Amino acid sequence: MLAGIALTLASLWYGQNHGLMPVEASKDAALVDDLFNAMMTVGAGIFFLVEGVILVCIFKFRRKKGDTTDGPPIEGNIPLEILWTAIPVVIVLVIGVYSFEIYRVEGGFDPEAAEQPAIVQVAMLPGSGLEAGLMDAQPAPKGMKHHSHMALGVGGSPESAQNAPDLTVNVLGLQYAWIFTYPDSGVTAGELHIPVGKDIKLTIKAQDVIHAFWLPQFRLKQDAIPGQDAELRFKPTLAGEYPIVCAELCGAYHGAMASKLYVMEQDDYDAWLQQQVAALDEPQTVASKPDEINADAAYLAPFASQFADQTGVDAELLQQLHPLHNHELMKAMQPPVDPAAVSALPAA
Amino acid sequence: MTIQAEAPKSAQPQLPHAGERKWQDYFTFNTDHKVIGIQYLVTSFAFFSIGGVMADVLRTELRTPASDFISPELYNQVLTLHGTIMIFLWIVPAGAGFANYLIPLMIGARDMAFPKMNAMAFWMVPPAGILLVLSILVEAPQSGWTSYPPLSLMTGKVGEGIWILTLLILGTSSILGGINFFTTIIKMRVPSMKLTSMPLFCWAMLSTSALILIGTPVLAGALLLLGFDLIAGTNFFNPTGGGDPVVYQHMFWFYSHPAVYIMILPLFGAISEIIPVHSRKPIFGYLAIAYSSLAISFLGLIVWAHHMFTSGTPAWLRMFFMITTMVIAVPTGIKVFSWLATMWGGKIALNSAMLFAMGFVGEFVIGGISGVMVASVPFDIHVHDTYFIVAHMHYVLFGGSVFGIYAAIYHWYPKMTGRMMNEPLGIAHFTLTLVGTNLTFMPMHALGMQGMNRRVAMYDPQFQSLNEICTAGAYVLAVSTLPFFVNAIWSWSKGVPAGDNPWNALTLEWQTTSPPAIENFETLPVLTGGPYDYGVEDFPDDMLPPLTSPELQPDSSAFS
Ligand SMILES: [Cu+2]
């Protein structure tokens, strides 16, 4: 009895005080942590129970020297067995329902995540804003339906899913870097800058092999699969600088495939964006400044800078990345061309 | 309780000695299931050593954040070989070794149902394994043991081709073994043994065989298509030609999730044998444990996409696979609680076999708890493909399967060789393994949650201190195998003679000589009681009560 109370208290305490999770940079991250703390509490309870029973067996039920008799012939106990079947059933049902609810609130069921390829194309055409793209969106012609992909990733939360996101950024994973383009302004960067408190949507693509876009402080991850678009939609609540990690083995320098996420106050973000747009408009000025390119190099592989000589993210790639030289990349950023979808476009 | 009706113990020394095993037999195409069982076990331990050296190479690289010990390409090759070897050349064949050795003895048969096929299945393993290991001299596969396209199609044709070929051979071997185990258990039991009176190890192998037979052909299909993509330039999985890499993941995990149960169920079975014998109590809840094996086997077939929660899996499927995965905790929990209840109130002999069995329960449960956690989609989205997963699977496969294999070796070694293993060495082995396991794998949980991705040769310097602990633990684990190998080799010729039944166990394999004669039983045994009737009072008059063997038991445990 006393042991039971101690065990319960210990697991309750540990479930809240494990200190294993990194900073929570969004409300959804806090929700995931609540779920984890609940599972950790139950898990710690089971852990203490099982290890406790084993220890008691070692010390209390050890055979005495010279005792050659057998133990009591107990072959089972139906009520006890029903109990330890029923309790796990209840536990996993509760955890299951709880996980389901968190997943729903996070936006896992956002049906809009199932983008029709045609809409993506419209939205990405230069000159047409995202809003226009969404407004033009019409039910895809019947023949096209099977071309559309399943909903991949985590979409908008149920309240915001119907609204267009405040900012959309296209994310492209390639060996061994992440490249971010802002379709509204045409800016391309090797790091992700977003304003705090805004509804952000990332469209995630891969160019060569499968990568996985992981934001540990947001508890969000989605594989970038060549030929299949996915999305992550979230609202950062804490300004700061966070790592972006590739979580799917993508080659020898997979461990160095990293970038930075800057969650900025709106003013800072606007200033940054303006600076980027200005650089886009006056390419010559920037191109003549090698310092700037080096600065790009610094931010492109920030924490991997110590492996810069190994990462394959070399000066050449960085130059390509630069607005002046990024035609190749801009082409790559377009969704994989689906001839059927393209030819169907004017008709629609 | 089981007895040999017409072969009382006094008659056994007169068994014909003409059929003695020669050591050369172990290097031939021998159809005796006991020879094949030992062939499997010795082979698997050889590959365990190779895979273990590779693990320590990986951990040495990871001692520091920079890639400074081996090149990142070589790192990925070693990583791929480590995973593939430990799964397909260590745990799976070790389980097959115990199954081959024990099933016919446990059910009172003279051999497996298809002895020649059995030998053939074994002899596929060494060439395939050697081919895979030697590939490192030319070009080893380097896309991980999961070998996801398109990466696997881009990292070197030779290495990937060798990997596919190796797995096809090992898969075929596994299927042949599965057919054999299944048929033998169903058809070859002594007439007096009902399904519900057979040892729990046989129930576990029945479930395992079903998984092998259903899952492995799908893996073979995936590998063949991947091979076509690789060599013939087809586009089943290659997105540049319109293929779908996610289809490969489905086919791969349709086998490779059940593969976890193929690796753990035989050891669940072994633990269910070992715990009652050394606790001197009947197994608690025989039927529940037997049916939970079947339940795990069935559920294990419908959970595969939980490896793909962040991949191309739509929301509703993520939810379906989350629920099925969590439900597996129920039959697994039944087993764990039944083992605990078996020990509770017993008279436990704390010898090496029992220590490893208890260690198995204590370590496996950690992997089980983290398993339920990673089944939860929102949490898995965070920790998928991180060191949390590395920690989880090593608690299941090292804390679980490897502890189970050790327990089984200490338990059945006297039967296989006729000699006891040395207890002090065994306890040193257990202590080092327990410390090393937790030192290596416990910090990985924190690493994963904090943001360290897996399969990396270089990492963020903030993770260095925990990685140093993991590396130290890996070295402890390397050292821990020394007392074991010394013990196993030395005891084979110099160990204390074990007698036929040193543990005074009741299952049939202990009712014949140690090591058993070539035909196993001179006269086929007749069952008169259950396999776990310890402490049951009503023995037949002509049987001695199943006392703990007074000559061997007290000395066999340093703790009792
Ligand atoms: Cu990557």
UniProtKB/TrEMBL annotation, chain B:
Per UniProt, the enzyme's principal EC class comes to: translocase
State the Gene Ontology BP annotations: aerobic respiration; electron transport coupled proton transport; respiratory electron transport chain
Membrane topology per record? Multi-pass membrane protein
The enzyme's E.C. designation: 7.1.1.9
Could you tell me which residue ranges the Cytochrome oxidase subunit I profile domain spans? 17-528
Subcellular localization is given as: Cell membrane; Membrane
| Biochemical pathway | Energy metabolism; oxidative phosphorylation
Q: Which domain of life is it from?
A: Bacteria
In Swiss-Prot or TrEMBL terms, this protein is called: Cytochrome c oxidase subunit 1
Per the UniProt record, the source organism is Pegethrix bostrychoides GSE-TBD4-15B
- State the gene name recorded for this protein: ctaD
